[in-house]
Amino acid sequence: MTDMLARPDVEVRDLSALRALAEEASAALEGAHPVEVLRWAGDTFGDRLCLTSSMGDAVLATLAAEAVPGIDVVFLDTGYHFAETLQTRDRVAAELDVTVVTVKPELTVAQQNIQYGQSLYARDSDSCCAMRKVEPLDRGLAPYDAWASGLRRDESFARRHTPVIGVDTRRNKIKVNPLACWTQDDVDRFVAERNVIVNPLVDRGFLSIGCAPCTRPVQLGEDRRAGRWSESEKTECGIHL
Ligand code: SF4
C-alpha cells in the first residue's frame, strides 16, 4: 500500500499540496488496518510524526508502537485530569515502546484562577479549553509535520465523515486517523485480544474521558461522548476542529 503513494516533501506547508496528499493517501488507505495506515505515516514523515492520546485507553498507542516503534505520544496535561488518567499515561510510558511527551498550559490552574476567577470551566468553557487544550496542543505539535489521533466515525454524529488521512487546516499539518473505520466492536475485540491498557474509569461508566470537572459517567443508551460537557451544548474542545 505504501508503494502506491509518492513520498511528499515533508517540509511542505502549502495547504493545497497537503490537501492533495491527504486525498490521495486517504483513497489508497481507506479500509486498511490501522497498523498499515500508521506504517505509511511513519515511512512518510519519520520522526516528524507523533500521535496524541487522552489516555482513555492505549489502543492507538499500542498499534503505533507496533507500526512506528519509539513514536512520540503527545499528552496534554490540562491540570484538571483524573488521577486515573495520569496513572494510565504513566503505564503507557513504562510498558509500551513509545515516548510520552507531556505538554502543559502556560498557566497553572492556580494562576488561571487568579487571572480569570475560580471555575472558569463552568462559566466559559470555550476560553478554558482554548488556554488549557488548544494553545498547548498548538505548541506541542509545532515540531511535527503530521499527527495521529484516535478519532472514529462511529463515535458521534459530528465525527461521521472522519477521513483516514486529513488535513489539520489550523496548523497546516497532515492529520492521520488510523481508527476512522473501526467500530466500537473492533476496539473492544482488540482490547481483549491484546490486553490493551485501559483507563480504570471506563469500567465505572466514563466511556469518553476528559477533564474531571467536565466529564461524567455515561448512562445506559446514551452516546459514548454524552458525558462530556453534559451541562451545555458543547461537544468538542476545539483541538479536532
Ligand atoms: Fe477547562 Fe473543561 Fe475544557 Fe478541561 S474540558 S480545559 S476543565 S473547559
Tell me the helix content. 25-40%
CATH class: Alpha Beta
Largest sheet: 6 strands, mixed
Arithmetic mean pLDDT: 91
Query: Roughly how many Å is the radius of gyration?
Result: 18 Å
Strand content: 5-15%
Structural summary, described in words:
There is one protein chain. With 241 residues, this protein is of the alpha/beta class. The chain has a single domain, classed as Rossmann fold, CATH 3.40.50. It is 37% helix and 10% strand. It is built from eight helices and six strands, in the order ααβαβαβαααβββα. The protein has helices at residues 15-29, 34-45, 59-67, 83-95, 109-116, 120-123, 125-141, 184-194, and strands spanning 49-52, 72-76, 99-103, 146-148, 165-168, 173-176. It has a six-stranded mixed β-sheet. A hairpin with a 4-residue loop joins strand 5 (165-168) and strand 6 (173-176). Helix 2 packs across helix 3. The model is unreliable at 1-6 (pLDDT under 50).
Task: Give a quick set of tags describing it.
alpha/beta, 8 helices, 6 strands, 10% strand, binds iron/sulfur cluster, phosphoadenylyl-sulfate reductase (thioredoxin) activity, PAPS_reduct_dom, Rossmann-like_a/b/a_fold, PAPS/APS_Rdtase, 4 iron, 4 sulfur cluster binding
SSE layout and pairings?
Layout: H1 15-29, H2 34-45, E1 49-52, H3 59-67, E2 72-76, H4 83-95, E3 99-103, H5 109-116, H6 120-123, H7 125-141, E4 146-148, E5 165-168, E6 173-176, H8 184-194
Parallel strand pairs: 1-2, 1-4, 2-3, 4-6
Antiparallel strand pairs: 5-6
Helix pairs in contact: 2-3
The protein binds iron/sulfur cluster.
Subcellular location: Cytoplasm
Catalytic activity: [thioredoxin]-disulfide + sulfite + AMP + 2 H(+) = adenosine 5'-phosphosulfate + [thioredoxin]-dithiol
Function: Catalyzes the formation of sulfite from adenosine 5'-phosphosulfate (APS) using thioredoxin as an electron donor.
